[in-house]
Write a structure and sequence with these properties.
By secondary structure, the chain is mostly helical. The protein has eight helices and no strands.
């Protein structure tokens, strides 16, 4: 089954939260039950909860990796900042815009290292090393007064969003 990732991710990443019906459609479309190995009708149930932010990061990472088998090459006319369409419901506009600028700077400056991070197994020592390799650039891309907790997981999530937005998303 082929999925048009831009169309599907556009549904998942829209600014308002998907309702339960849409979540059920997404679960069926991505064959979540099959992926989790749930045997229907066997009297077993399983539930899982994941934050919308973490789900977005996972989907962005997979969409980027599915469309790029090797690190991308930045085009000669690339711009450092990209137009972004994030929900600003949960956090201030300044925070969202600041994080988008940080990620745009990182993926513009260190695309190869960012790509390498996404190709490491989550939670591995390789992931930690790849995240540490990006820390100096993250520091230089941050605006004055900007702070966030830098862990391999948060760096991976930022990188996934940035790499998807810059290299996998076909419309800006």
């Amino acid at each position: 089954m082929e999925i048009d990732t831009d169309v599907q991710l556009g549904v998942i990443f829209r600014e308002d939260k998907p309702d339960r019906m849409e979540q059920a459609k997404l679960a069926k479309m991505y064959r979540v039950e099959e992926c989790l190995g749930i045997a229907s009708g066997a009297g077993r149930t399983m539930q899982s909860r994941i934050s919308a932010t973490r789900f977005r990061s996972m989907m962005a990472e997979e969409a980027y990796l599915a469309s790029h088998k090797r690190p991308p090459v930045l085009s000669g006319n690339a711009e450092k900042s990209l137009p972004r369409f994030h929900s600003k419901d949960a956090v201030s506009a300044a925070t969202v815009d600041g994080m988008a600028a940080l990620v745009d700077c990182l993926t513009f400056t260190e695309a190869e290292k960012a790509d390498a991070l996404l190709r490491t197994p989550p939670g591995s020592s390789d992931e930690r090393s790849a995240a540490i390799a990006l820390a100096p650039t993250l520091g230089s891309c941050m605006t004055q007064g900007q702070t966030f907790k830098m862990t391999p997981l948060t760096i991976r999530a930022l990188v996934a969003d940035g790499m998807w937005a810059r290299y996998a998303r076909t419309t800006h």
